[in-house]
Amino acid sequence: MSESVTYVSKAKVGKPAPDFKMKTTADLEKLSSTASLADYAGKWLVLFFYPLDFTFVCPTEITALSDRIEDFTSIGAEVLGVSIDSVFSHRAWLNTPRDQNGIQGTAYPLASDITKQVARDYGVLVEEAGIALRGLFIIDPSGVLQYAVVNNLNIGRSVDETLRVLEGLQTGGLCPADWKPGKKLLNV
């Protein structure tokens, strides 16, 4: 008889984000770089999980975020993608042209959660499949988790919505439904 273990997410909106340390592709040649939550102190971080390299929906999200990276960096945010694949698999995918289902030219690093602990801590690990759901987390410059959304495997995320939420969080104000940057905040 096999046992099923359930993990409680450590990621709670309004609380310090779970710490992490993972190898990344920031140094694509040597693959010796790591990323930790402390590396993003003083910056906004868009941390997103995707199921697997060399799949179908994932490259559409990764390249869409990459194509808009200047929109993120111009407002003081960095992006870090995470899957349970190794940095070697990430490097192979990053070296594969986009027209061959690759993500060549991606403008931010991918991290390897090979132990699956970070996906567990953020509550996105599908234990029986050994992969992560599509989780997206926005962490503020103080390391506090401000936003969390999790999609099932078949639905890609919206870059426009991610930017809208990030900019709304950065206002520090009350943003009504369908608020967009430049619109009025609620006065209470």
Summed up:
With 188 residues, the chain is an alpha+beta fold. 22% of the residues lie in helices and 21% in strands. A hairpin with a 5-residue loop joins strand 8 and strand 9.
Written overview of the protein:
With 188 residues, this protein is of the alpha+beta class. It has a single domain, classed as Glutaredoxin (3-Layer(aba) Sandwich). The protein is 22% helix and 21% strand. The protein has five helices and nine strands; from the N terminus they run E-E-E-H-H-E-H-E-H-E-E-E-E-H. A seven-stranded mixed sheet has the order 2-1-5-4-3-8-9. Strands 6-7 form a two-stranded antiparallel sheet. The model is unreliable at 1-5 (pLDDT under 50).
